[in-house]
Amino acid sequence: MEDHLKQPKPFKLKRRPVFALFRAVIMRILYRKPQVTVLEEISQPCIFVGNHDAKRSPVIAELYLPVRTAKWGAYEMLCDYNTRRRYLRDVFYIKKQGYGKKLASFKAFFEAFFSLFIYRGMNFLPTYADARLSRTLNESVEVLRSGMSVFIFPEDSDGGYREVMEKFFPGFVMLAEAYYRKTGTDIPIYPVYYHSGRNKLVTGAPRYAHALKAQGFNRGAVADILRDDVNNLLYGYIRDKQ
């Protein structure tokens, strides 16, 4: 079956005791605690949007962000071993990181064995680049309605991961819209920036998609505003403050 026809198992938000032990022991050894700055008290549930910093930011958020979150991630990483291996090799390592095919193949071969365990443990919601995104939106709304927040990494990383991001995809705006339609609540969207080189994590003040749209901003413009908010955390709280 072609990869685009494969489906991950339905998302289930549940406790995973084996992963919790792995998270508390192994992951905290591999990823040291950053300097965490919370500029404004976080109201839950909420949506976080931030940079990806390759694959480090989702892990740091899982370990050290003072809010438990489900996260959006490529659906291929929640499919079978071969689908995960090809995605890691062709997309993550070659296309986004610029690795050569031999090194990318070597890393993907081993990583694909344990990546599903980590993705499920970190509560990744499968995302799609087609009409199946509606499934992601519906599942995400239910996560938010349960009281848990959602972390989305909306940067366009086709040309690689950048320190200063140039484009945000508006999927998180669509999620805020869907949540508003079902609950009548304009959910807060918090910008987040993690910098692995300086080992700093900063969360900023929230924006509200419904309020911005009422001012005349469309989805793309709202996405641009949040992209600028995330980049401004880099300028103001990471680069300039040692």
Provide structural commentary.
With 242 residues, the chain is of the alpha/beta class. The protein has a domain at 25-75 and 129-239. The chain is built from eight helices and eight strands. Strands 1, 2, 3, 4, 5, 6, 7 and 8 form an eight-stranded mixed beta sheet that branches. The longest helix has 21 residues, at 101-121.
Give the topology.
Elements: H1 17-30, E1 35-38, E2 47-50, H2 56-64, E3 69-74, H3 81-96, H4 101-121, E4 124-127, H5 133-145, E5 149-152, H6 171-183, E6 188-195, E7 200-203, E8 207-208, H7 209-214, H8 219-239
Parallel strand pairs: 1-7, 2-5, 2-6, 3-4, 3-5
Antiparallel strand pairs: 6-7, 6-8
Inertia-based shape: globular
Beta-strand percentage range: 5-15%
Largest sheet: number of strands, sense, barrel closure: 8 strands, mixed
Q: Which range best describes the helical content: under 10%, 10-25%, 25-40%, 40-55%, 55-70% or over 70%? A: 40-55%
Structural class: alpha/beta
Concise synopsis of the structure shown:
Helices cover 47% and strands 15% of the residues.
Name a few traits of the molecule.
242 residues; 15% strand; eight-stranded mixed beta sheet; alpha/beta; single chain; 8 strands
